[in-house]
């Protein structure tokens, strides 16, 4: 059975026995993988601290049958994020990022762009002034990579261009709603032109500075994306409440 090498982010760990551990790792090469690390709980194991939550590591694994656990044979730490220790909001954001990668993706479905977006977010979350922007930017990348990017320039129902300061957003429709279509959408939420402009800019990769957002705008964007992502997942992420 040939071994495979990958670079991955540890997004979940579970004790398996007195000496072994199961880890869920989001890899750039293979997407999400679940691995069994035999001896991973020993103080002097081959994995040491490589399987700590939110560690980026180089791994070697043996692939098992579909649906089963892969066998982890090597893991070496490449990067950690010590800045998260002194920034509680950043730490909650990092845990939320890991939760989205875990519950919102399928195993063995690679998205290199999503891996890169997650890494960029984790590197920014340690800075108090950048935490909110990093979280929102990752959420938009998560939505785009998984095919749920919201429509923000034209009405998600009729396709007409939208403009104005008072709009609506429909989670079921997947985007902004024009004044003519909004009344028929029961799940519509108020959506300001400013919030639409900010999210549109992030979707296009523009560098919008979160420090310049008014508190009310931050709150609106946080609530709207939380509602939309919860709709897509069919349930509310556990860590979302710590960010709102």
Shape: elongated
Total beta strand runs: 8
CATH superfamily of the domain at 3-79: Nucleic acid-binding proteins
Percent helix, as a range, is 25-40%
CATH fold-type name of the domain at 3-79: OB fold (Dihydrolipoamide Acetyltransferase, E2P)
Element-level helix/strand string: EEEEEHHHEEEHHH
Average of per-residue pLDDT values: 90
Supply the helix-strand structural class.
alpha+beta
Radius of gyration over all CA atoms, rounded: 20 Å
User: What summary fits the major beta sheet?
Assistant: 5 strands, mixed, barrel
Describe this structure in a few short sentences.
32% of the residues lie in helices and 23% in strands.
Task: Outline the structure in words.
The chain has a domain at 3-79: OB fold (Dihydrolipoamide Acetyltransferase, E2P). A 5-stranded mixed barrel has the order 1-2-3-5-4. It is of the alpha+beta class and 244 residues long. A hairpin with a 7-residue loop joins β4 and β5 (70-79). It has 6 helices and 8 strands. The protein is 32% helix and 23% strand. It has helices at 88-103, 112-124, 131-145, 193-203, 215-233, 240-243, and strands at residues 3-15, 21-27, 31-37, 56-62, 70-79, 166-170, 175-177, 188-192.
